[in-house]
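Below is a filled-in request sheet from our internal design queue. Each sheet records the structural input a requester submitted and the sequence that came back. We keep these sheets so that new team members can see what a complete request looks like end to end.

REQUESTER: design group, bay 2
PRIORITY: normal
MODE: inverse folding
CHAIN LENGTH: 125
BACKBONE (tokenized):
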């Protein structure tokens, strides 16, 4: 098992897990937890295509859940924000560089944190 520097970003989804769980938003908690697990599986062995496909499937499911929750709760800004995470993702594949991929993580998790905060403020405060 090798260490990959992108795993240094794992506190971001862990923070979202705790934040979502504290407000009882279990769908966000479970999504972030699944992304953490599949990311660890893939990024400790980035040559394993089986884990790569699993990670991509879980992340895409996370995007779908994020967008549906934005629609359900009536928030457009987090949906727009998370859409910007596609740009560094494309660059990471064009240049074959995980540095750009790290920004995909940062934007995506920031957007999730933002959405959880909006839901918590509107419905739980």
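RETURNED SEQUENCE:
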């Amino acid at each position: 098992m090798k260490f990959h520097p992108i795993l240094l970003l794992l506190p971001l989804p862990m923070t979202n897990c705790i934040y979502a769980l504290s407000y009882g938003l279990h769908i966000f908690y479970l999504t972030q937890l699944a992304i953490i697990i599949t990311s660890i599986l893939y990024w400790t062995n980035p040559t394993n295509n089986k884990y790569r496909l699993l990670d991509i499937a879980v992340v895409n499911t996370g995007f779908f859940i994020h967008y549906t929750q934005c629609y359900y709760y009536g928030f457009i800004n987090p949906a727009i924000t998370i859409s910007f995470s596609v740009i560094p993702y494309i660059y990471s594949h064009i240049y074959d560089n995980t540095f750009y991929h790290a920004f995909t993580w940062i934007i995506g998790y920031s957007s999730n944190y933002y959405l959880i905060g909006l839901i918590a403020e509107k419905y739980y405060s």
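SHEET NOTES:
- Residues 9-123 form one domain.
- The mean pLDDT is 92.
FILED BY: M.R.
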